[in-house]
Amino acid sequence: MNTRKLVEPVAVVTGAGSGIGRAVARLMLDGGYRLVLAGRREAQLLETAAGHANAITVPCDVTDPDDVERLFASATRRWGRVDLLFNNAGVFGPAASVDEISLTDWEGTIAVNLTGSMLCAAAAVRTMKAQSPQGGRIINNGSIAAHSPRPRTVAYTVTKHAMTGLTKSIELDGRGFGITCGQIDIGNAATELMEQIGVGSGAIQGDGSRKVEPTFPVEDAARAVLLMAGMPATASVGSVVVTAAGMPFIGRG
What we know:
Elements: E1 10-14, H1 19-30, E2 34-39, H2 42-49, E3 55-59, H3 65-79, E4 84-87, H4 103-130, E5 136-141, H5 154-173, E6 179-187, H6 192-197, E7 203-204, E8 210-211, H7 218-229, E9 239-243
Parallel strand pairs: 1-2, 1-4, 2-3, 4-5, 5-6, 6-9
Antiparallel strand pairs: 7-8
Helix pairs in contact: 1-7, 3-4, 4-5
């Protein structure tokens, strides 16, 4: 396994146009990373990059295998290697229980959150195996839904439980190639997604009531991602859970 400390490591960040992806990308740029910013909307990626010399933007649909291959080819063409993938792109999906969700909505959520994450991880692993020195790190953005669901989030919850299996499989299969993989499960970081759920105005609880829940700055979640990313190659952080203090997670139900 490569143990050297890389200068200006190269990171691919998906879903970099907003929310946690944008916050992580900006902290990485401040920390000396060279970045490839991926997302569906180029204008938002350019806002994240803010003209930084160490960032390139690559519009990408993570559900499209050709787009994903082009993303990683762009990374190696520009920077020569990939040291880190922050596998962050995702959607919340429809508010529905299992008897209500349409097949189209189910498959659409699976496509982005799970298949998209698999395609990006696969391309990252192929790149990390082929480069010299070999190796790298993948951080999957899960959710506290991987531990305990919110009501009427069947598609989202299933994808985040599956993300845990993806994370552990990548970690195991990457051992012989210096590739590590961990997962961060974040609860109630103040992003657009939290507005969609209605956390600030009253999110539905397990008993059907609504409750205004605490949030915390998205930059604090980003700092946790950077802590995982900055570990030496000799260490692997398998799982991190970061939530807003006092949110109804422990004891949810």
